[in-house]
UniProtKB/TrEMBL annotation:
The chain crosses the membrane at residues 6-25, 37-56, 62-84. It comes from Nocardioides caeni. InterPro entries: NA-bd_OB-fold. Keywords: Membrane, Transmembrane, Transmembrane helix. This is NfeD-like C-terminal domain-containing protein.
Amino acid sequence: MSIYVVLGIAGLVVLALSLLVGDLLDGAWDALEADWISTAAIGGFVSAFGFAGAAADGADLATPLTLAIAGGSGVVVAWFAWWLTRLVKDGPSDGTVSISDAVGLRAQVITSIPGEGYGVVRVNVGGHTLQLNASAALPIEAGREVDVTGVLSPTAVNVTEVWRP
């Protein structure tokens, strides 16, 4: 087994460790204040360097050319691993949808809302469809569009019908 294959396997082990305990390992790089260094990038570089070097060595290329191919492959994979981990870590995360997030949005009346009492409306909040109990000052028929104007309880909102001339 060539040294290149050993490096490729070692890089895969580092990549596996970065998936399991990456936050702990990446904490060591924080002292260097180098955001571009990550365990996934190092593992990707070593793995790609090893396997690309093994392939180039198996093709009986000259040593400088083998090292250039291995190094170039390692840099490309390391950059991709760094970019992908930053994309996942720094990406926005959706918080828990709250009934108060529905205030100000349009909703569809599913069950008619009587003048005194509750009906049901469906509202899309941040990509999540919520069905909420709804109360209104005036009766509203099913199928009408309404605006959510306030929160009455954890499961109920106040609505007003969308006026259409």
